[in-house]
Amino acid sequence: MRAQFEDVHWTGHESFLVRTFDLPRFTVPWHFHPEPELTLILEGSGDRCVGDHLESFRAGDLVLLAGNLPHYWHSHAHAPSSKARPSRERARAVVVHLREENFGRSLLSLPEAVSWKKLLERARRGLAFEGRTASHAAKDLERLPDKEGSHQLLALLGILQTLCDGTADTRPLAGEHYLPACDDHAADRVRRVYQFIYAHLADPIGLDDLARAAGMSSAAFCRYCKRVTGRTPTRLLSELRITQACKLLTDTSQSVSEIAFASGFQSISNFNRVFQQIKATSPQTFRRQHGRTH
């Protein structure tokens, strides 16, 4: 359940991709990618996880994610249907990916695009849209796959503007300190550290490993990490490992001890202590409150 890097397959020279999914269930693994993502759930229900935030979703769920923010949508298991009345529930969604070089250094550098740039900056924690904003944007987003070329681009920009104007209907998802708030240069460096951690959560990770990922000395990285993330490297690593453990507690039937070692903890006692510090509850209680039936 370590966060996997997902290669968004671009088909040509487009600046964004619009895709529709019609599946029996959402089963995408815990993953991340550099491209910002806008997702509208048309049908289905289940659990949505963004960073360290876990909650239920249903049809109408509308979420904007900045690049490199780990996430998944997992459908609830359906009760077995009878032959007379087969289950017709599906997992349907419209998903938009924005190419970083176009919706970053190009379009968003225009002075007229400042509100869209701020929107994507706020999406570093993930943004859920509700109320009239979600309703209006969802109608346009559902029609977006039927448009082409400049008509599709103009429609997408209109959707982004609707989201910009709906501040009162916006709710951040991941915790305030889950991802650092820093300038672009610092963000790129910290992203490399996050990507290294996501790829090696179950492995022993030392301070020197994190410093190498950041391209810094160990002493310099300690000071840097505290300044840009508000946390020590040890605390940062522990929080991401506990987030990993929460996914395993909710999504698998593995024992708590198996989950502790799969999340990179060297002892059960240390795992239980750190879990209690970060989540203010025990792993067993967390599983009872959030776990699925397997």
Automatic annotation (TrEMBL):
Pfam hit, one: HTH_18
InterPro entries found in the cross-reference section: Cupin_2, Homeodomain-like_sf, HTH_AraC, HTH_AraC-typ_CS, RmlC-like_jellyroll, RmlC_Cupin_sf
This protein's UniProt keywords: DNA-binding, Transcription, Transcription regulation
GO molecular function, one term: DNA-binding transcription factor activity
Signal sequence, start to end: none
Domain HTH araC/xylS-type per the UniProt entry, residue ranges: 191-289
Lineage top rank: taxon: Bacteria
Protein name (Swiss-Prot/TrEMBL): AraC-like DNA-binding protein
Lineage: Bacteria, Pseudomonadati, Verrucomicrobiota, Verrucomicrobiia, Verrucomicrobiales
